[in-house]
């Protein structure tokens, strides 16, 4: 279990740019919650309940600020609710209560779907990124998930990754400005294959033109697998860019064998970005006096592959990780456990107080 601290402040609800009117109208809500609320209103019944929110995994919770914003801006009367919650980034155990909502149920019944969905998505991302950081021994991670999902999830996903970096003390880079918008950051990136192709496949020329254009504080990092000869290309780029080059990125397809490995195959899996390839690039750069040039790896990296690299001491300085960070599930559940002060949870569910929860102002 990591020894971490979450950020102990909450984002302003306005930052989330919620579709308030539609949320208030139940537009994003499962119909049965809307129907339940309408039934209670038609009957004149306004039960005072305690809603308890939890999930079933060891996790690093995300999305609480956003869930609170939904309650503040979209409930019928925020002042009529009492909410206690943990903070984004808090480490939680299975079934630990992360938030309670107390008040007239009809004030917030129409919001359950949306706040649970927010918590599920953001907690999944934060937890996945924390585990990747731990596997990487807290080396820098580039969160490269934007191209693997719908653009509307970028903002919250990027912030969830940022929170993972805060609680572990690791450097997290995101690749779009939208992903970085909630904390005022900027997207980062390397010289991509498309730019190299735009210069006729000449990696050195593309890298040189990029370096000429880029602001002085840009960490110029260049993909070196365009011609499937990462060792030679890395050396050519390092010689051409000199001190302007921060790092090279290895991204060999998992269906290809880099030309530098062809003569040595037979006792290892040669495809993709593998240990032998990384060591060859590192050795070549060091021999030519480019010890300070960093090596970034990407392409099919998962927690398991990163952990294996770290256990074997593969000389990687940073990992680019994409689709594996948005895969999996971290579902949340909300139960009414007290109604008008009396236990009312379904069989197997009971009120589980959590002294770690703090009152939300």
Strand order of the largest sheet: 13-12-1-5-3-14
Strand segment count? 14
How many domains? 2
Unreliable stretches? none
CATH superfamily of the largest domain: Aldolase class I
Radius of gyration: 25 Å
The CATH class designation of the largest domain is Alpha Beta
Series of H and E elements = HHEEHEEEHEHEHHEHEHEHEEEE
State the shape: elongated
- Overall residue-averaged pLDDT value: 95
Structural class: alpha/beta
Give structural notes.
With 361 residues, the protein is an alpha/beta fold. The protein folds into two domains: 33-136 and 160-179 and 330-361, nicotinate phosphoribosyltransferase (Alpha-Beta Barrel), CATH 3.20.140; 137-159 and 180-326, Alpha-Beta Barrel (TIM Barrel), CATH 3.20.20. The chain has helices at 20-24, 31-43, 64-74, 112-135, 154-168, 193-198, 203-213, 230-241, 275-287, 303-311; strands at residues 48-55, 59-60, 82-85, 91-92, 97-104, 141-143, 172-174, 220-223, 245-250, 294-297, 318-321, 332-339, 342-343, 358-359. The strands form three sheets. The protein has a six-stranded antiparallel sheet. Strand 10 (294-297), helix 10 (303-311) and strand 11 form a beta-alpha-beta unit. Helix 4 packs across helix 5 (154-168) and helix 8 (230-241) runs parallel beside helix 9. The radius of gyration is 25 Å and the shape is elongated. The model has no long low-confidence stretch (mean pLDDT 95).
